[in-house]
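Page 47, continued from p. 46.
Same chain as before, 768 aa.
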Amino acid sequence: MSYVLKGRVIFQLKRLTGAGELGNPYQILGVHRRASQQEIRRAYKQLVKEWHPDKSNSPDAEERFVEIKLAYELLSDPDRRKRYDDKGITEDDFYKRPSHPSFHANNPFEDLFAHGAHFNFQENDITFFHKLSITTRQYDKLLVPKSEKTPHLIFFYTDWCFQCIQTAPYCRKLVDYLEPLGINFATVHSGREPNLGRRLSIHMLPCLVLLLDGDVFVYKEAITSVQKIIEFIRNKMPYKMVARIKTDDIDNFLNGWEDNRVRGLIFEPHTNMRLRYLVIAYHFRHRVAFGFVDSQEIRDRYQVPKDMDTVLLFNENTSYPMASISMKDIPTSTLQHVISSNQYLSLPRLSSQVVLESLCPSEWHKPKKKLCVVLVTSASRGHDPHRHSFRLYAQQSPFNIDRVHFNYIYHDRQSQFLNSLVPEGEIIQPLLKIVVFWRKDTSHLNYEWIDGKWDIEKKLNDTALALERTVGRLLKPSEAPIHEAYVKDLYDEHATGMIGKLMTRIIQYVETTYESLGKEQILAVASVLGTIVFILGIGYLMAYLVGEHRETEGEIGRQQQRRHRPELPAGAEAARTPLGDLQRAGAAAEARLSHDRARPGHAVQAAADTALPSRRVALQKVSSEKNGRVENKTLMFSYVYIERGLKWYTELLRLSLPDETELNINPRNCVGTVLSLNGHRKYFCVFHAKHTENRKRRKAAKSGSVNPKELDCESGAFIGFNSDSSDSDGDVLLQGSLLDGFSNWLDRLFEGTTQRFHVNYWPEFPIK
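Result:
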């Protein structure tokens, strides 16, 4: 304790009085005179770790530590460094206090300095941002790749920005607090790098953004609170990266190492995990799965102190940890060193190219070569005993673990890699066999297969002896595996699928868009969406009210029709139900046929009489045809009583005849007639069972024995309009034959081949 106090006194004396010579700062830090700021900073961090009074046992550690700090302060300031390079000045004259007595007598600020007060003119100096400034190229080439493991805070500023100067003290505090936790801080001059600001959706200056695994999150609030920024970083960390472990979850969590990741348990006296452990979990998330323990039973199980931070690391053996560390406040550097030394299982799986590069690094020189001993298995429970036996052998192996790594691989997932390790002309069944290879570079390796299989049902002594002989021979500098192969990168077994990547990108895009929007933009978007929803709601309400109104009008019309309908015999109502949903044409027929209100298309009306049998037979056939053609929206089916509409029917036919003579129509002959009325274009088509032309009439028409006009199917004379006899043609038409050929006529109607009769106006339909 006395040494630390002594060092602090020396440090303060040198800072305030300028006593003592600093010496050559370049020699103190061990850098050359042309060293960059990054090299100086790197050397300073390394020396501080080495000569820190709490870590070094040297009696000169305090003095050496102060010299290193003063040398770094001089060289990190461009102005002081330039003065030293030009004139050899190691102290800033502005801060040095003269020793002449007259200064003390006449200095009005003596009382302030006597009580330890001073003015910090560098606290709001914008040169602090210039020292940490990066370019767009550095952002793309350095920061983005590093952000996969290390979070980065990026501060955007410009010159002559008063608010940027005001935020300088908070940024200094952020650097002092976050850099020891493993979060890097950088700045970007927006005036010099405008494209980078546009890429990252910088909405204002100053602006602070968080870079995590290539994704950018904009901090929208004012930079006036360090605690809010820390909470912002905590909230943007990957979701559920650190699981909260309770008593019932501990066994499942520790036994989940089959995902090829070590398990880590974090214990803290606090109820919430601190940011330093979140950053550590983010850094090692691909190799270690962390859990924050919230159970006293688990603490008692592993005998964890209550008042200390503790981190336990587990491999395949979940009964006790393979590494542990307990301290009041665990330094980040110590924690990173412990985890990086124990980030792999005792028998890891080669599940990706990154794992292969870490466990089996390429080494060209034979004396330094490292060997990988790999057991080939399948991803099935049946090979678990073989892997367990190989794991026990690896733990008891006599070889140096720094030069020989034991692993296993799934044949069904890495078949392309393993197929490359088959000598030409040979056939090898790789399952449960062992291959030893040495990676010369990233794509070439030398390999050898061990004779025999690692089968626990057979004797393993021969295979183990062959493995030991081969590895011992290959470790010699003059030896190398006999076969050579060109291999591609391993398939990443932990990579997210296409659908998962797409969903992740969509979520990230939505989050990024939301983060880039300000309050004004959010209100504008919400206003537009609210307007659209309001319009759709009003439209739906009006459509609903119109539908209700139409249903009410239809119900009123049906009630009026029932009141004006003549009395039917007993059982007639029950017999009418199979007729379908044909509507009887009444007083609204004229309105349907008017030019102003009728829509383009056809209104198909069937003529019937009030006698139930004939009406029932005719309308049943029309209804069946209607139901079969319901998809055609241009047709509207209905029927009319010929007795009530005879005047309208006669006038319609009279207008269609050339001579417009008076007609004497027999209503009985008109039952079963179907009219297709086009109210928009004012024409109609006629169907009747007697329209069908037989061969005899065609021959008679050709021979000239019969007047062709009388045989004209569309002239109206074919049914004896001018005769009072129901069988004027001598042909008897039965009730079941009223609509013979109606289906074919409808087809002709759709094709447009039926004859059309044009009228100048539609006759009025009788209301009674």
